[in-house]
Amino acid sequence: MAVTTTRPRSAVPRRRWGRASHRQALTAYALISPNLLVFGAFMFLPLILTFVVSMQETSGLGPAEWVGLGNYSELIRDSVFWRALANTVGYAAIEVPLALGAGLMVALLLNRAIWMRNLMRTVYYLPVVISGVAAGILAGWIFSENIGVANKALELVGIAPVAWRSSAAGAMASVILTSLWINVGFNMVVYLAALQNIPREYYDASAVDGATSVQQFRHITLPSLSTATGFLAIYGVITAFHVFDLVFILTSGGPGNATEVLGTYAYDQAFDTRARGYGAAIGVVLYLILMLALTVQFAFARRHPEEA
Questions:
Q1: Residues 202-214: pLDDT tens digits?
Q2: What is the rounded distance in angstroms from the CA atom of residue 269 to the CA atom of residue 265?
């Protein structure tokens, strides 16, 4: 009796599936290849060139001199760099929590059935779409020490005018207040989306158990907003660390170096002083800080995959 051998049935589907997946992979790479080329040409390649330039001493004109880590060692001894780093950290430490708190309060208010709610949402979100340059010019008029709206309003309520331009505290306060005006709308939209995803049954059940509004906010609302708060905190830190246009237009880093941040200091070194290599080194340090913040964000997303 002849014995016949048959190929396992699982082999054919597996081969077909392998071919299909291979074709799908090739199709996917073909579709994303234009974006990869654009990313490589305008993002990845400039990043590599910036790192190379940071190893050189060059003005952008004439030959460059290779100095290795010389620019980075000079950063360690540069007091202005440390002042700019401290200003950036201080700006982020003050602006981000205030923007989170203000965005949450506005979202809680506009999540209720109030008069002209849709119009108010638009009004709060409108500054988000305004460019930093336009916001800086507008803030320059508002915080002018002589004819500014801010000091005129303070005089009406009997408060002495503030030296928004000539004092370190006043200049930094004007930057932070303008940033809040810009960023609160974005935080409001994210918090509104998170609030509307909280099941109403949670509040109804807690009300039956006798929970007050404060207890509902503490035990239901805040825990449900933890993911949104984590995202907005990381996003706010990243945005705060690469702030440039607003500070450049509003204060130009002054008075003195009171509002100098890493972005404006890198620009000053690269284009005003024409120390391109030194400015590139500052940019690389800023990039590493932002990558650290992104790493924290990705770690948060991995810990909460179902909520991210």
A1: 988 998 888 888 8
A2: 6
